[in-house]
Amino acid sequence: MQNRLSGRPKMPQRPPKERIKDFEEVPLGLPEWAAVEEAKRCLQCKKPQCVQGCPVEIDIPGFLKLVAEGRFEDAIAKIKEKNSLPAICGRVCPQETQCEEKCVLGKKGQPIAIGYLERFVADYEREKGIRPPSAPSWNGHRVAVIGSGPAGLTCAGDLAKMGYQVTIFEALHAPGGVLVYGIPEFRLPKSIVAQEVDYVRSLGVEIELSCVVGKTLTIDDLREEGYEAFFIGTGAGLPYFLNIPGENLNGIYSANEFLTRTNLMKAYLFPEFDTPVKIGRRVAVIGGGNVAMDAARCALRLGAEEVCLVYRRTKKEMPARVEEVERAEEEGVNCIILTNPVRFIGNDNGWVTGIECIQMELGEPDESGRRRPVPIPGSEFVIPIDTVVVAIGQGPNPLLLETIKGLALNKKGYIAADPQTGATSLPGVFAGGDIVTGAATVISAMGAGKRAARSIDLYLKDPNKFPQWR
Ligand SMILES: Cc1cc2nc3c(=O)[nH]c(=O)nc-3n(C[C@H](O)[C@H](O)[C@H](O)COP(=O)(O)OP(=O)(O)OC[C@H]3O[C@@H](n4cnc5c(N)ncnc54)[C@H](O)[C@@H]3O)c2cc1C
Ligand code: SF4
Fold it and tell me: For residue 382, how many C-alpha atoms fall within 13 Å in the half-sphere facing its CB?
């Protein structure tokens, strides 16, 4: 058996032909010897740039040194000083644009595989049994967190570690936000999300499910119940549509509905679970982000014979993680680039049968810094199709926001909050994650939850530290 690495290790993964037949996890994790060898490559920099690239401030060289010494339990304890969701982050964080992008070894060679090692120690601990944390005594204050995605879980966990009594209120019947309803099982097994949520619970956090704040109860009700501060982490779960003719035809899903049916409601196990999802022989997914990749790969596993991804720029501009694009292509997803839908075509029964598209070329950069796609006149063509999934982004759900009088929103309808403290326009109300930034990443939502926890602590100890609310 090989026991020496020649550079950064490759993640072992299941072969494409096998994995597209089920929803089991695709990457298999590093073997122990490879994890130790890789951690030994770390230079233990005095001023570690990698830490600056980590929104939750993990002591990366500290945990890598422990891995290199084979002290895996101590390594996971070091990570958990800052991050209560390491098995999740080790799987879905875009490390290539965060900690690993900053690693000095990346300047001349390959950066340390920090994400793979985070996953390794988190999995090691899970197999051995997760050590329960010691709970601090209650400091007398109660905080309400709205939404149980990565932002809410992090804020709640950090506050609990400081001695606050925290309750998370979650609209869905399962905690985890996008981690349970969006990201598929083959990328992030739900048993792992459940275990990390249980870890947050073991810190003393209570989670009330099926409670839509704004409908079931309001922030004012919660204030009357004795909650003194609030963190809103309700995410961006409202799907955007293309707004082109034919979009109401049967067989056209928003990615949100398609992925929620498939993942949270377990449509891939129908009829054992009672939510179906109708899938045709030929499926088109519109978009180029992680959501689009997930939808395309789910469609394959649900039995589609051909799955294509229709994207208006080139592969270089796709917002999805590079390794997820590679995996989708290995599995047979066909990326149709520089192409934009202009209308959907249907049959007499009202079902979609095709997408009329127009070819695009790249023009000058737009406000996102990417070159703007421009239609090529007269280049229209039709892709025959049975099912479409629209995965072009999400926005803020207005339900809660409309019930909070005086909560300032920005131009796009997201909560206006101070990026450093998470403070909103209302005293004692903080916000963070996708509901403030728009659809972003798990780790940036966690970073916002962490910063808000610090601010809530500061606020409850001395409200004068927030002069804007006086
Ligand atoms: C399909 C998909 C794949 C993705 N893949 C990746 C990836 O690989 N890597 C990555 O880093 N990021 C990925 N992302 C983005 C990432 O998941 C999000 O940026 C992140 O989950 C945002 O966290 P959040 O806590 O702000 O919100 P969410 O995760 O959206 O959680 C918000 C929670 O609030 C609840 N809620 C909403 N309104 C109310 C209310 N009124 N009352 C009570 N509860 C409410 C919701 O039900 C939800 O559970 C992906 C997103 C999607 C959709
Ligand atoms: S920057 Fe890279 S080499 Fe330096 S401490 Fe961080 S992981 Fe190790």
Answer: 10
